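HOLO CASE FILE
Compound: pyridoxal-5'-phosphate
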Amino acid sequence: MNTKELDDKYIAHSYGRFDVCLTKGKGSVLYDEGGKKYIDFTSGIGVNSFGICDEIWRDAVEEQLGKVQHTSNLYYTEPCAKLAKLLCEKSGMKNVFFSNSGAEANEGAIKFARKYSFDKYGEGRHNIITLTDSFHGRTITTLAATGQDEFHTDFAPFTQGFKYCKANDIDELKKLATDDVCAIMFECIQGEGGVNNLSVEFINEIAKIAKEKDILIIVDEVQTGNGRTGKFYAYQNYSLCPDIVTTAKGLGGGLPIGAVLFGEKLSTTVTPGSHGSTFGGNPIVAAGAISIVERMDEKFLADVRAKGKYITDYIKSIKGVKDISGMGLMIGILTDKNASDIAKECLKNGLLVLTAHKNKVRLLPALNINYNEIDEGLKTLKEVIEK
Ligand SMILES: *Cc1c(COP(=O)(O)O)cnc(C)c1O
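Model generated. Tokens follow.
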């Protein structure tokens, strides 16, 4: 049996895969089993921040691999402590809990938002406001947090305690922010929900209400974080001071890691025994993540912004493009064609792109993609959309 046949027989059928088996690559170029070349505008859904087999990242991982691969969280290890320091310096947050994925990071955020409120006010203030078209993960609780009805079928009962506000609807936000609410949780740019930018006015209103009512601000930076929008975290594009930040995807450069970053208000909330993870803060993954995060200086982030502008300027000139959304190297494209048809046609022509929320083509290229790779990919994208 070939890989596809083995997969169809032995892998549970939760994914609709494209008809291609990728075997190797370098930077933003990938090859399939037959040796066909693809330009990668997906970076593994925003995960391979520095592309395929980045040498600095690989060296960092390999070096740690030769020292110790895992110790359990009963002992100190250097990589996770150093990574936490870097993340705090870049975000202004105070300390970090490491998990293995975005959903787990959000679970941690939800737990400690509730605990903060319980410690301070007692019972009855456990509700969290999330937004329509948000996406927060696939566990029962993070599915409940996800503000899309299509995710709220099949697996009931879901975790209680979420109220959904229409994204960018300030009046509804005011109505929902009652005394039973401990937190507001959102993505500054909704990724899976369609690359939807929240309005500055809405984000400012969240900040205002949160301050007035001691409601915590949880920013889900799983997709938007780690340089993706041209700032280290997307909230840094706004005047927003979150209490909890969650991140994952691009943080590890391709290995699984998630993080919950806590601000000043939460300084006494996380107590010994209140949370844990067997693999969280794994030294190999953390060593790789350090090599990613420490290269994201202001010059690097300015390059991300410049490449984002270059790409969106080009896309504006493509006939049939109706709207472009996103920020930096997180780009949503609305056309009059079906987005998944475009993605399939791009694949045939040697370009990997993503979709979001049925109607959008989504680009999440590696942050270090070079201009030759960008030009090659954009040429294909234009041909496919204009065909
Ligand atoms: C991908 C994603 C998640 C879930 O992350 P996993 O690592 O798949 O659990 C949560 N929130 C946002 C915004 C995401 O994009």
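CASE NOTES: The two ends are 36 Å apart (CA to CA). The mean pLDDT is 98.
CLOSED: yes
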